[in-house]
TrEMBL record:
<feature type="domain" description="HTH gntR-type">
    <location>
        <begin position="29"/>
        <end position="97"/>
    </location>
</feature>
<dbReference type="InterPro" id="IPR036388">
    <property type="entry name" value="WH-like_DNA-bd_sf"/>
</dbReference>
<dbReference type="InterPro" id="IPR011711">
    <property type="entry name" value="GntR_C"/>
</dbReference>
<keyword id="KW-0804">Transcription</keyword>
<dbReference type="Pfam" id="PF00392">
    <property type="entry name" value="GntR"/>
</dbReference>
<keyword id="KW-0238">DNA-binding</keyword>
<dbReference type="Pfam" id="PF07729">
    <property type="entry name" value="FCD"/>
</dbReference>
<dbReference type="InterPro" id="IPR036390">
    <property type="entry name" value="WH_DNA-bd_sf"/>
</dbReference>
<protein>
    <submittedName>
        <fullName>FadR/GntR family transcriptional regulator</fullName>
    </submittedName>
</protein>
<feature type="region of interest" description="Disordered">
    <location>
        <begin position="1"/>
        <end position="29"/>
    </location>
</feature>
<dbReference type="InterPro" id="IPR000524">
    <property type="entry name" value="Tscrpt_reg_HTH_GntR"/>
</dbReference>
<dbReference type="InterPro" id="IPR008920">
    <property type="entry name" value="TF_FadR/GntR_C"/>
</dbReference>
<keyword id="KW-0805">Transcription regulation</keyword>
Length: 263
């Protein structure tokens, strides 16, 4: 098996930058975007071949000069794109790039609240049942992945952007715990953009409102996890439905009246 760590480009500094360099692009697109592009290019070009284990988080952090949070979010986006698969406690492995699917989430309308509300309706139906199945079929490894995602979420409650990747990882882990590959494939195909914070700006929320919102999301996640952990499918379905209905209502109410966004 090839060692993909040998294919990673050397870290760049501002002194190395040229007008078209990754460093300059990062100023507009963000570190996570640049890391996703760099790793995604190697995966699609098969510099990192299907089945290869990616370098560790620490190696990627050192190579690209980014934080652990950026690495984890980038890996989550690559997993959502179907390019890699992470196995908790083992590592992240390259997958065979999938052919383009027919079903598409309209990524172009990233600021359209109506699109997000419709997506949350779909997620409520699909993920409520997924939570029930996960409660019946989950393994200890599935629980560890959920717990890891919740831990990462809790560690970044003060930074809205940093919670997106662990939020998605939690929902994807539940889909994987169903034992039905269609649930996990659907979630992976939809990707991080199913998390409202990636598509609808919350910049008008003050710091206190953001914190209140994220703590409510965290508590709802904890309720879902607790039901799955104790193998209670009805409670898991109810907790997931409550979470996603609440999420939809928070988005609807916030855009009708931003003063009540975090209620």
């Amino acid at each position: 098996m090839n060692d993909p760590s040998l294919t990673l480009p050397e870290a760049r500094t501002d002194a190395d930058a040229s007008p078209g360099s990754p460093v300059n692009r990062r100023q507009g697109k963000g570190l996570t975007h640049e890391l996703v592009e760099a790793l995604g290019l190697q995966l699609r070009s098969r510099s990192i071949k299907p089945g290869d284990k990616l370098p560790t988080e620490s190696v990627i952090m050192q190579t690209f000069g980014v934080s652990r949070g950026v690495v984890r979010e980038a890996l989550s986006r690559l997993q959502a794109a179907g390019l890699v698969q992470t196995h908790h406690g083992v590592g992240t492995f390259a997958l065979e790039p999938a052919a383009q699917e027919r079903f598409q989430f309209d990524h172009s309308s990233s600021g359209d609240i109506s699109e997000m509300l419709e997506m949350l309706e779909l997620r409520t139906s699909v993920e409520s049942e997924a939570a029930g199945l996960a409660a019946l079929r989950r393994t200890d490894e599935h629980l560890r992945e959920m717990r890891s995602a919740l831990h990462d979420f809790e560690q970044h409650l003060a930074a809205v952007g940093e919670t997106v990747a662990p939020d998605f990882r939690f929902h994807l882990a539940i889909a994987q715990a169903t034992g039905n590959h269609y649930f996990s494939e659907l979630m992976s195909h939809l990707g991080l953009e199913v998390i409202p914070r990636t598509r609808v700006s919350s910049s008008w929320l003050n710091v206190e409102q953001r914190a209140q919102h994220l703590h409510k999301v965290n508590q709802e996640h904890q309720d879902i996890y607790a039901a799955i952990e104790r193998r209670d499918p009805e409670a898991a379905r109810a907790a997931m439905r409550i979470h996603l209905v609440n999420s939809r209502e928070r988005q609807r109410r916030a855009h009708a009246d931003p003063a009540h966004a975090a209620e």
